[in-house]
Design goal:
Helix content: 25-40%
Shape: globular
Oligomer: single chain
Largest sheet: 8 strands, mixed
Mean pLDDT: 93
Distance between the termini: 16 Å
CATH superfamily: Acetylglutamate kinase-like
CATH topology: Carbamate kinase
CATH class: Alpha Beta
CATH architecture: 3-Layer(aba) Sandwich
Strand content: 25-35%
Strand order of the largest sheet: 5-8-2-1-11-13-14-12
Number of helices: 8
Structural class: alpha/beta
Radius of gyration: 17 Å
């Protein structure tokens, strides 16, 4: 069982990732694909006249501020266009893919955070009307049923709240939660960086291995920006029983095969 998170940043090679995933399926591996869509969502938000707002929480995590209109744009772009085109591409490659969002069948349930404490210009602000949440439950039997029937789930990472509202959830942590719920051997998180870097401006500073016992220290002292959530998701997955998490580059040739060969940061 392998969970693949394909980031939505510019430069990530979705076609190569799909080709590698199709090879795994032909080899008999069970695979679940979780995808992002941040870059495309930003472009479409700007075209619709609803400029995105990115914030940093008081705990240092970067995210998109998600008001209701932003949530609806996310659902249109990620749950509609990106998810459907990925399923189409996988079908062309012979994979019987099925597109889902976390709302379908209550696949992902999350506790909504209606307010968000952020730091801007050195000041702490409270943003209201936030539609984001933290995953509390994964409908593993639904995914297991689909996998056993020969389908490959392709999941857009938003969820339904306990009050039945559509909420945005972090894609990396969604992949980690799904991996934990399915007792996955490996979670591969692909983005537009080589992995965890000691110096974010120097790709040669790649940290190739992080023992779980040292991951909290790495999270606090090394991980910056979006990488914080990736490392946090890895810690959550490993503590819930996932065998290993690989943070790797989604822009290189054969990104999935390179990730499993150790080209990235392995946390285990």
């Amino acid at each position: 069982m392998i969970i693949v998170k394909m980031g939505g940043s510019e430069g990530v090679d979705a076609q190569s990732i799909c080709v590698g995933l199709a090879e795994w399926v032909r080899e008999g591996k069970e695979v679940v694909l979780v995808h992002g869509g941040s870059h495309e969502t930003t472009l479409i938000s700007e075209k619709l006249g609803h400029a995105p707002r990115f914030v940093t929480s008081t705990s240092g995590h970067s995210s998109r501020y998600t008001d209701r209109e932003t949530m609806e744009i996310l659902s249109m772009v990620m749950g509609g266009r990106i998810n459907t085109l990925l399923v189409e591409h996988l079908q062309k490659l012979g994979v019987n893919a099925i597109g889902l969002s976390g709302v379908d069948g209550r696949l992902l349930e999350a506790k909504r955070k209606p307010t968000l404490r952020v730091v801007e210009d050195g000041k702490t602000l409270v943003l209201r009307g936030e539609y984001s949440g933290r995953i509390e439950q994964v409908n593993a039997p639904l995914l297991t049923t689909l996998l056993e029937a020969g389908y490959t789930p392709v999941i857009a990472p938003f969820a339904v709240s306990l009050e039945n509202e559509l909420v945005n959830v972090d894609g990396d942590r969604a992949a980690a939660a799904i991996g934990a719920a399915l007792h996955a051997e490996t979670v591969v998180i692909l983005s537009n960086v080589p992995g965890l870097l000691e110096d974010v401006d120097d790709p040669r500073s790649l940290i190739r291995s992080v023992p779980l016992a040292e991951a909290d220290t790495v999270l606090a002292d090394v991980a910056k920006g979006r990488m914080k959530r990736k490392v946090l998701g890895a810690i959550e997955a490993l503590r819930a029983g996932v065998g290993r998490v690989i943070l790797a580059d989604g822009r290189v040739p054969q990104p999935l095969q390179q990730a499993l060969a150790g080209e990235g940061t392995v946390i285990e």
